[in-house]
Amino acid sequence: MNKNQKIVVIVVGTVLLGMLVYPPFHLDIQKGTFNQGFGFIFDPPGYSGQATINIVQLLVQEIIVGIIGGLAYFLLKE
Question: How many CB atoms lie within 10 A of CB 54?
Answer without folding.
Answer: 19
